[in-house]
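Good morning,

Attaching, inline, the backbone tokens for the sequence recovery test we're adding to the shared suite. The designed sequence is right after.
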């Protein structure tokens, strides 16, 4: 098992990619703190999957955009599971349908607090804890291929995801002497509850898949396998990087 004896905190693990990561990490030997914001039933489902393979699961409700809530989740996770060795920043929200000239302050605030400040707050708590424990550890952040591409009518989302790439690079240098690996995954179109509406719409699905050389949506488990590599000893010599996993979408962008 690649994560035997490790303890992971996975934000947004109530569904989609976060659920798949928490499940695979448990299968590979990790106990998991399942962090959710609104979907308690989803969090319970994830916890059940973790426990079915004999690992401990702790369900915590938190708002990653609220630094006090983040600190509380970390404190409780450590108290009940023990020292955290892996952080996966997966919580995020989508946003679209408004041009910059029309967007409301509240929309900008919500997206940036959840998708950008949330991972920063979680990284801050994790690094503080790891330094107290003598260093070591893994941080994996789930971004989006949107960090590399234009996002018309969704500028705050693209801004946040691009910011995660920058955070990854900067933080990796800050914590290198602590031997904390920091990496970022930028998925393309993945079949999750957030994207299911687009995939269920025949016209929207065909339009989306026509831009992807692999001609299909990715699956959450494919992202989870990459996260496992980065969170395990197999990825020890990798830090400060963004890994794009998109079926070739970003290589196709702007092509005929």
């Amino acid at each position: 098992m690649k994560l035997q004896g490790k303890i992971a905190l996975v934000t947004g693990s109530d569904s989609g990619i976060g659920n798949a990561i928490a499940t695979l990490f448990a299968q590979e030997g990790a106990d998991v703190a399942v962090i959710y914001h609104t979907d308690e039933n989803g969090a319970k489902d994830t916890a059940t999957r973790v426990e079915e393979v004999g690992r401990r699961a702790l369900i915590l409700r938190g708002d990653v955009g609220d630094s006090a809530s983040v600190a509380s989740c970390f404190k409780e996770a450590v108290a009940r599971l023990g020292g955290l060795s892996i952080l996966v920043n997966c919580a995020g929200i989508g946003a679209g349908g408004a041009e910059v000239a029309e967007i409301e302050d509240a929309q900008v605030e919500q997206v940036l607090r959840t998708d950008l400040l949330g991972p920063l707050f979680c990284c801050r708590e994790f690094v503080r804890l790891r330094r107290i424990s003598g260093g070591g550890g893994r941080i994996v952040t789930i971004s989006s291929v949107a960090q590399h591409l234009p996002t018309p009518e969704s500028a705050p989302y693209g801004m946040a995801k691009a910011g995660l790439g920058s955070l990854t690079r900067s933080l990796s240098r800050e914590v290198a002497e602590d031997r904390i690996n920091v990496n970022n995954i930028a998925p393309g179109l993945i079949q999750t509850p957030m994207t299911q509406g687009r995939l269920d719409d025949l016209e929207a699905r065909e339009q989306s898949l026509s831009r992807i050389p692999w001609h299909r949506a990715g699956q959450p488990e494919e992202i989870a396998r990459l996260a496992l590599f980065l969170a395990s000893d197999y990825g020890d010599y990798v830090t400060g990087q963004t890994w794009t996993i998109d079926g070739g979408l970003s290589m196709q962008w702007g092509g005929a």
